Amino acid sequence: MDAQKLHQALLSPQAYPDEAGPISCVETHVSRLYFTPSHVYKVKKPVDFGFLNFTTLDRRRFYCQEEVRLNQRLCPDTYLGVVEIRQQGRRIRIDADGDIVDYAVLMNRLPQDRMLDHLIETTAPGLEQEMGRLGERIAGFHAAAPIHRGGAGRSHLEVMQFNWQENFEQTAPFSGQSFASGVQELVADYVRDFFNTQASLLEHREQRGFVREGHGDLHAEHICLTDPIRVYDCIEFNQRFRVGDVVNDLAFLIMDLDYRGRRDLALSLLAAYRASFGADPDLQTLLPFYQIYRAWVRGKVDSFLARDKSAEKSLCELAQQKARRYFNLALGYLCPPVLIMTCGLMGVGKTTLAKALASATGALLLRSDQLRKQLAGLSETAKSNDPFGTGLYSPQQTERTYAELLRQAEICMRQGQAVIVDASFSRRSDRVRFVRAAEAMNYPWFILHLQCPQKLALQRLDRRSEEQEDASDGRSAIYADQAAAFEPIAVSPQLIRVDTDENVDYNASLVLRDILKTIGGDR
Fold first, then answer.
1. How many other CB atoms are found less than 10 A from the CB of residue 69?
2. Cβ neighbours of residue 12 under 8 Å, at least 6 residues apart?
3. What confidence tens digit (pLDDT) does each residue in 478-508 have?
């Protein structure tokens, strides 16, 4: 049966036994999930991505059965079984009379307000303590998981080498769209070097029993913080994605928490896992490698969805945005601690790019607009309409602001923390001071010179003035004054010019690529 016709039929409550109320649907690159008031029906799309193949009815039935079997390990009361979707005339119903046209996994619906992704999005209190429970749950699952050695005639090292090669083959078409040109080559160089230097470690860990049948898709959307914690939707379609080093399994969730801007939760989870699972001296060596792997895979998966012609346009656009951010996170894991200074006129998008880079790298973001207000004892959104170069923006206040920015940046550099200073840096003397401080500590530094057409910058300034929600006091009335006072920037290998008329996440990819090309990416 045509997948789109089946999808439309399953949006009707009449297709379900003993169900009432509206039906909602969530779509991924490989499945559609239909939510009734009390249950979830998961239907696999008839797709073939190489690493999975759901193109025949028999395959979809088999993998539905596998999904139930495997997920009952961590959700025994959630996965209820496999149901038949039948057609009788023009009518589509589940578990009724007629010809079988497809199959669905039947699940009890879990409480949305306890889903980890929802709790993170709503900034729910107490999540750090919940990471203790979650770390123990995952550690217990890993400790009891079956050990694998040389499954299917291949070692874990060989499987990981194959997985990475497959990734690169499948993501190559996304170069220039999901990530900047040249990015894949940088990551491939890192992966090759890692395998060359750490092959014996991976082999040794497999011999010691660290390669086990895990979950394979461990991220926040698949975790419900009920009692007990339920972790669902594991990889059923390909054993080589489910079987791997326990650090590989854990790295997915650590990466996902980083992606969601909760590196604090990632640290708490990691501490709880280590305390429960036991000492693992190799964890710190392996974790960055597997985090990069997981981020790259997620970028690939969302890139697939972005190109799915049968999916809604808005879903494809969101998937493209997510793909770029996952690939940027992979680059961020590669990037050593650096000092980054934004530089440019008001309205060019310095803060927007700085936030994207901070998200990818975990860098501390120091913003001059916020600090200037703090030093003056003002609220962040308090507005100053003083003429250019006076009042809050007098030379004395500007000097005070940059001195404090430098003091805080130096603290970060001493601690080995990446730091991004979001400011105009219109004065050459300010740039020189920061550069000298970084060089005195032998700390890599970069200046991002952001530019865009004047018309676009003025439009952004007018929109921001109307919204009255940002700490910046930049406005179109003083744009020309700042442009006239802006001092030229010296050309150097550490100067990266950015056209902010382009997509911000793509620009972040360009910046990270250029940083890694200049200083190398292996920490």
1. 12
2. 23
3. 999 999 999 999 999 999 999 999 999 999 9
